[in-house]
Amino acid sequence: MLNNAKVGGVLILDTSSAYGNAEEILGDVKAGESFKIVSKYPKCDNTVAETFNNSLKVLGIDCLYGYLLHHFEAYRENKPVWNDFVQLQKEGKVDRIGFSLYEPWELDQILKDGIPFSLIQVPYNIFDRQFEPYFKQLKEMGVEIHVRSTFLQGLFFKDRETLPEKLQPLKKYLIQLDEYAASKGISVGDLALNYNLYNPYIDGVLIGVDNKEQLLQNFASVKDIEINLDIKVEELELLKPVNWQ
């Protein structure tokens, strides 16, 4: 599957020591020889340096393209932890350092603190554009922007007629999505993926796949189309999968 990814133009692989044996698998197939790798420091008892160096060891590489603080709480509770990331960068072990965030207020705090970071990963899709107001400023700062949740954790593919009661308020927005995709002659998946791919501020779009077929389908979804769609979701709390239960 990684060969297909390389041929298809994938440049970066996103992983973490918290993702089971993901790093070991990438190390076994020598993924670092063909791709840039971004990993993350999770909540754990080990120091940043210990966790980072172990990631390098299991990945079988000398440096990472990016290293992110996986949980903002770890920074908020112990801000000096960021110095460890800066030190790794100074030692030439990682090109870009930054944060994986979930809420705009987390980014507000980081910007207020004035710390130097060069990579950020945030949720972003047609419905959830809460981080969009920051994109221009981040690019001016030289920050690379990676986005996840392109398909909003699968919400865009759910049957509109059998949505759980809690998600019913989102039905009208999903219908708007369907209508716009139909007007363009594309699928909702095509629409969601290209919406992110063609955002001029976004440097990387993270997509999770389980097999080669899903990967190839994502490649086939890339279209040369113009998208002018502005769906304003009012029920912002429902855009967080943690609130779907």
TrEMBL record:
It holds the Pfam family Aldo_ket_red. InterPro entries: AKR2_Oxidoreductase (IPR053135), NAD(P)_OxRdtase_dom_sf (IPR036812), NADP_OxRdtase_dom (IPR023210). Residues 8-223 form the NADP-dependent oxidoreductase domain. Coiled coil: none annotated. It comes from the Bacteria. This is Aldo/keto reductase family protein.
